[in-house]
Amino acid sequence: AIENQKELFGHPLGLYILFFTELWERFSYYGMRALFTLFLVAETTSDNPGFGWTNEEALALYGWYTMLVYVSSIPGGWVADKLLGQKKTVMLGGILLCIGHSVLAFDSEISFYIGCLFIILGVGGLKPNISSMVGGLYKQGDERRDLGFYIFYMGINIGGFLAPILCGILAQKYGWHYGFGLAAIGMFLGQVVYIWGQKHLKHVGNLISRKNEADKAILDKPLTSIEKDRIKVLLLSFLLIILFWAAFEQAGGLMNLYAQQKTDRTIFGMTIPASVFQSVNSFFIITLATVVGRFWYKWKQKGNEASSIFKMAVGIIIMALGFGFMSAASVQFEETGSSAMYWLILAYLFHTIGELCASPVSLSFITKLAPLKYASIIMGLYWAATGFGNKIAGLIGESAQSLGDFEVFTGILVIWSLIGVVVILLLKPLKRLTHGAEDATMEEG
Ligand code: GLN
């Protein structure tokens, strides 16, 4: 039971099982994502042939694919809720991912699509449910829960850091399918950890019978006006989440192609594979997470505004400013025919600081505001919102092929900054709609 679970370094052993499982799952996902568009646009006649698609075609598929990867959290959550429980759904998702990434390592067009399909279903089963299981390791009100999620988030980014470098170098040196193959090996490791660690997860992620009449009575009550207000703010926060990822996810798409096609990547006579730049975000997450966390902590202690919506808006603005460096890069490209690497690094630095402001708080904000009745639907919608963001990111990337890089990067800079500012201006009425959900000392409502 949750009371007598074994611990290591002050956290339940189960956390480390989930940590390593998700580390390897993200290793496989981000390894694949780093190669995805680059592979699609690689010439069919080159030594290391891809599909020879145009940028526009590649970004269109990237948008659909990464959207579905996250939207499939809705069926994934449903299966966990109604049929299997979270723990078994993660297991099933992991199996689908092992198959998907392995199939992707084969060199044919049909296997490519089949692999993607399995990955979509696999992430939907694994990603949302493993995240919820982390919460399930801690009792309500356990102070260690936030730290638990923080540790888990580090695992995600260790995977996200290593994979684009290792898969990218293999893909460039030996061929794309070796890169995809390494992603598959990562996923197998994750699955082995998860299977081995089942003994430490006995008490979490099991299917809960919802037939209990007392629970049902609670759940059948109509929503109060406070709950209705909170749903309104929730919907707005979903919109912010969509907008955030719509800009941020240029990373694996347009910016990945930009690194490949328009950036001078030589250093000390060596050429860095474009996919390696996909590691920069995770590198900065790992190195800056505590700095940003400490900043907000001190900021709040001084009595400043520190609501989740405020942090999300600030995150969007900082991320938007990162696109200013991409505008500068495209000016340099127009003038000299190639742009320097540091523009990409600076852009990713700002994107990461933005992510560190916006992303962790958005998840906890949602769990605080969702009426119990809709808790799992709203969790599914959270991941789906990320998915819609990815789709819009693809569309924006596609539009850059006709509008021009400078126009699109500058457009994101201006429009997204304005959105952030408008949200900050509307903060007071928005916070009123939360009815103190974020204020621990205030009575409900
Ligand atoms: N890097 C995070 C992860 O992979 C962000 C995912 C997302 O919400 N798009 O978990």
Describe it for me?
- This protein is mostly helical and 445 residues long.
- 75% of the residues lie in helices and 2% in strands.
- It has 16 helices and four strands.
- The protein has helices spanning 13-41, 55-71, 73-84, 86-104, 109-136, 144-173, 176-196, 213-220, 225-248, 254-262, 280-301, 308-336, 341-369, 375-403, 405-425, 427-434; strands spanning 7-8, 11-12, 266-267, 270-271.
- The chain has a two-stranded antiparallel ribbon. The chain has a two-stranded antiparallel ribbon with strand order 3-4.
- Strand 3 (266-267) and strand 4 (270-271) form a beta hairpin.
- Helix 9 runs antiparallel to helix 13 (341-369) and helix 14 (375-403) packs antiparallel against helix 15 (405-425).
- It is globular.
- The two termini are 33 Å apart.
- Bound molecules: glutamine (GLN).
How is this fold's topology laid out?
Elements: E1 7-8, E2 11-12, H1 13-41, H2 55-71, H3 73-84, H4 86-104, H5 109-136, H6 144-173, H7 176-196, H8 213-220, H9 225-248, H10 254-262, E3 266-267, E4 270-271, H11 280-301, H12 308-336, H13 341-369, H14 375-403, H15 405-425, H16 427-434
Antiparallel strand pairs: 1-2, 3-4
This protein binds glutamine.
Membrane topology: Multi-pass membrane protein
Protein name: Di-/tripeptide transporter
InterPro entries: Dipep/tripep_permease, MFS_dom, MFS_trans_sf, MFS_Transporters, POT_fam, PTR2_symporter_CS
